[in-house]
Design goal:
about 230 residues, alpha+beta, Immunoglobulin-like, 5-stranded antiparallel sheet, 5-stranded mixed sheet, about 25% helix, disordered N terminus
Length: about 230
Amino acid sequence: MHTYGIRGASLLGAACVLALTGCAQMGGLGVSPGNDARAAVIDQPSHECNPALGGAIGALAGSMFGKGKGHLAGAAIGAGIGAFACMAYNYHARKVRDARAVEAQYERERGTLPASNTIGAYQSELIPGQTVKSGSKAAMQSRVTLIRGTNEGKPQLKEQLTLFSPEGKQLTTVTKDASAIDGTGEYETNFDFNLPKGIQEGRYTMRSALYMDGRQVRTNEVPMLVVS
């Protein structure tokens, strides 16, 4: 009995590895930040995946789980692993409001600038909208307002995006350094992604989280309705 358990775990690992290697590196899908030469922009390109290839390899790996009905179930599980394991993201950020404007607003509302680094606002939305076709491109776009503290140095910011299934299971997660957010100002960030084709329809959830100096400081959750 222990041998079968070990063999099953080993095969699951093999399915995951094969599914991941099915991701074809085909170049990024970044959204153009525009022509404003004054905007500070940083791109961290990923690679657009090939979910069909990833799903096929995942299904092949998953079919190793058994024979008959178990064989078919394993193939379906493997195909799901392949599609979402192959999902890739591009991340970029740009400044949309300078320090003078942000500090003036903060002082009007609060009276004085903060002593420590402060996130004034953090909002996220799906672009072009909350209804997304499987196989199409979309982006999680966020606005971050940072006020650098008068008694602190430059903060280290990271942004994380996590996708949850209609059943609430975590499917993918990715974290990127928000190195363009380096001082007081309002910034626009984008996680661009290509949703795998043929995935289950339903209401998914995209969660964005902002970390400052290793500590999670803000989160947003946005529903995403996937249709075929």
